[in-house]
């Protein structure tokens, strides 16, 4: 059950209208790493959380806060669109850099939303629930959450750097600070989970069922040896279950792939007789129905 109060979590007041910037701000509203994504991601993770109520409560705390961030950004976008007819934005977009990147004002802000925000990114692409992750495995989900907050904070910082409006910067500085907390929050939660289970997801899969000969082998599949200098190439593995091994020239371990010709009713390419060594062409012809 949610209750709405009229006050925003923090101020969202631009100093003046700027519909071109409103178009930019749509990215951190409805983009892949925008506030709508983390809002829905956290809420579904919380609603679907099984077991430890500490984690469920924490996830729903942050998910509910993200609803507030969505409201703040939509409010800011709407005010950036105040009193800004399209012809004025055509003038603003005469800057060749702005024109190349944005093409001026988003026409949907007039035609579709009536000078309001839309659930889309900065190019007008609709928000998509496939951006969200809720797997039921908390360690896997919390790592995804850390990535989402890292990418989101990066984008908000870039938006902060691309405006001089003190009101917009004030709101963004608040969101940046909250993203600082949220990254720290997920790091702390990940660390806590890793102390109580293996670091590799899923921790419940018996490791003897995997091909353990290559479980900790870092294979160099590119030119150069620079990658051998990394922590991932030598020493104890992060999960404490093995030691990293650097393989400079990994050998192929599989068979030469060969797919037999398709049956006649598929109407694929007929066999030409150019078959791998030690194969019987008549067998393939028979199986293909020729």
Strand order of the largest sheet: 1-3-2
Order of helices and strands, N to C? Answer: HHHHHHHHHEEEH
Query: What overall form do the CA principal axes indicate?
Result: extended
Give the strand tally. 3
CATH architecture name of the largest domain = Up-down Bundle
- Name the CATH superfamily assignment of the largest domain: Ferritin, core subunit, four-helix bundle
What structural class results from the helix and strand content? mainly alpha
* Unreliable sequence segments: none
Largest sheet, in brief, is: 3 strands, mixed
Radius of gyration: 27 Å
CATH names the topology of the largest domain as Ferritin
Mean pLDDT: 90
Strand content: under 5%
CATH class of the largest domain: Mainly Alpha
Query: In whole angstroms, how far apart are the ends?
Result: 66 Å
Family: Belongs to the manganese catalase family.
Protein name: Mn-containing catalase
Pfam families: Mn_catalase
